[in-house]
């Protein structure tokens, strides 16, 4: 019975790693680039309206883990500073997006708003890319095998017959190798 419980627990942990989520983090600073402690930071999913809030740490940092894939609105407010808002922050599967926020003194600015594609930095160690729904629908695929979309990414090489035969059952169903890794090391996720 304990063995079965342990097996189920391990399976749940493995499945958790497949969630289509990402992370948004950053640091709030003032005009002199000093950290802003205790600022209220709110992130909202533009499609679903789901909101999460936190306060910045002593170092001015904030972090939102387990954000579902999508576009987000970010707002930051602190006493003595003009409210800050940013839109169109894209969170993708397995990505860590670092979004620095520089707050302005309230007397000189009423509100700071960033609209459109702001510069974000992915600080995650995972390599990957997201294929949009439009690309998946519009591109000609042999037999509508969506795994072929992986071949559109940089560093991806198609499986050769010799490589496929050498791997035996481990490589059955694999379509490509990424950046010199073994084909069975590929991880894919769907956000349907």
Plain-language structure description:
A hairpin with a 5-residue loop joins strand 2 and strand 3. The chain has two domains: 2-122, Sandwich (Immunoglobulin-like), CATH 2.60.40.10; 133-185, no CATH class. It has helices spanning 2-16, 133-138, 161-167, and strands spanning 21-29, 40-45, 51-55, 61-68, 70-77, 84-91, 96-98, 101-102, 112-114, 121-122, 156-158, 176-178. Strands 1, 4, 7, 8 and 10 form a five-stranded mixed β-sheet that branches. It has a five-stranded mixed β-sheet with strand order 3-2-5-6-9, with no helix packed on it. It has a two-stranded antiparallel sheet with strand order 11-12. It has three helices and twelve strands. With 192 residues, it is an alpha/beta fold. The model has no long low-confidence stretch (mean pLDDT 76).
Q: What is the H/E string? A: HEEEEEEEEEEHEHE
CATH class of the largest domain: Mainly Beta
**Would you report the number of β strands?**
12
Helix proportion range: 10-25%
Report the total helices: 3
Q: Strand content of the residues, in percent?
A: 25-35%
Instruction: Give the terminus-to-terminus CA distance.
Output: 35 Å
Uncertain stretches: none
Q: By helix and strand content, what is the structural category? A: alpha/beta
